[in-house]
User: Fold this.
Amino acid sequence: MIKPRGGLPPLLLAFALSSPLMTMSAAHAVESGDANVGHDVFDQECSDCHSIKPGKNKKGPSLFGVVGRNSASIADFQYSDGMRALNTVWSADKIDEYITKPKGVVPTGKMKYDGLPDAKARANLLAFLATLK
Amino acid sequence: MYLRSGKNFSSYIRSTLIVLVFSATGMSEALALPSFARQTGEACDACHVGAYGPQLTAHGMKFKLGGYTESDGKDGHIPLAAMLIENYTHTAKDQDPPPEDLSKNNNLALQELSGFVAGKLYDGFGAFAQVTYSDIDKATALDNTELRYATETTLLGQEGTFGVTVNNNPAMQDPFNTLPAWRFPYTSSDLAPGPEAGPLLDDMIAGTVMGVTAYAQLNNGVYAELGNYSSLSNNFLGTVNVDPGPEVNGLAPYWRVAYFKDKRAYSYSVGVVGMSAELRDRNASGAGDKFADYGIDGHYQFLGNRMNIFSVNGSYLHEARTVADEKSNLDQLNIAGSYYYDKSYGGTVRYFSTADDSSAKLDTTGLMLQADWSPFGKESSWQAPLANLRLGLQYTEYNKLNGVSSNASDANTLMAFAWASL
Assistant:
């Protein structure tokens, strides 16, 4: 199992609070989202290449616990050199930036995804990713 | 499948053994072409509509264009798989004479038992090679087979996937499920009457030729492919047990241009295709019969969150032919629409027509309906030690068959099938 490393507790809390079970949403870094809707966004946009099961890599690494995880930290996944060199923590903001335009964050990366321009869809997706822990 | 009257050199037992050997090499997971799924870490449903081959999702189309080589990055995947299709065929009226060695009606048959080498062989190199035993033909033969090399690069300022394929069936390399080699129906009974006329691109020289084509799928959506086919030698075809059929005089050029977009929520393609060949008897010399095909085709697929998947795939092929000095035209239209719920329950409707203005007038029109269920092949069924499976019912109704309308409905066919991958 991959535990989130490098703490961003306030952010995680914000996402937990923005989950549909807790309708009273608190302060948040990105626009607050609906994790249920976000699950659909995940199935549509990401599920071909990413699993949400811990330790399950497809074409892309498992996204279990990705919010707050160090970049390129799944040991048995072969990241691109660009991703290895990124050296960041996948905060919600950073993931948001990455999935808006993957080549903007990792120009030589190997995630063949054009990007998700819809901010609302990204917010819902991030709310869903935050529940994966 | 183009097993023709077989040579009987192979027994059921022997084929079963081959498949058992394939299975023993590690088919533990529940998948469509298990070797592809093991290689990518993805379940069948990522690449196949309804979680069962061969109808591709946009993701599967890209996997194919990428040379069957994308993987989860780990080593040691064994590119072997196996498949079997058992079916039951009922025709509205008994067949007279009955299919060889079988009853006039209600036949149960092991139609295909196949072994595959399918997946990445080396960096950039992949294969899809099928060997099929048919208990109807009592023979084992080389089926659809291709080797590909593909690479992602920038050529003449265009980013995209560039590749070369070597294969034995024109358009089997095509990813869009619109052309004859891989369009609906993905299985149909070998034991029922059917249309006798079809264009060059529809099985006429399948398995008896070898083609080399180069292709590019640019990131801007443009797909282009160009190459040539020529006949395989009698010797080679004898070795792989394929009925040689007619010979291509010289080369048969094949070309294809399409526009393909994968928007993740949906995908579509529109394209044109062409092929021409001069065919003559294997031992003849001089000019043969001439066939020139031109076609348009397209698909639209709504994928959404994958719970409700709609697809429409169609093609219109026009052929100008000169057969024994008679010039004629053949036009073939095929359009199929399918809906799959929860990547498991599917329904497909297909309209088909062939218009033949030669003196033979082998016109055909009809409708086909299919319902099927694929219980496995999803990520959640990942650990299941079962094989992937599709169970289906298919009904074909003819309004006209091979030029005859009056009793065309005698050939209406109900087929039940069980299709398993191990």
Q: What stands out?
A: The longest strand of chain B covers residues 139-155. Residues 118 and 137 of chain B are 24 Å apart (CA to CA). The interface with chain A takes residues 40-42, 46, 57, 59, 70-74, 264-265, 303-307, 379 of chain B (CB under 8 Å).
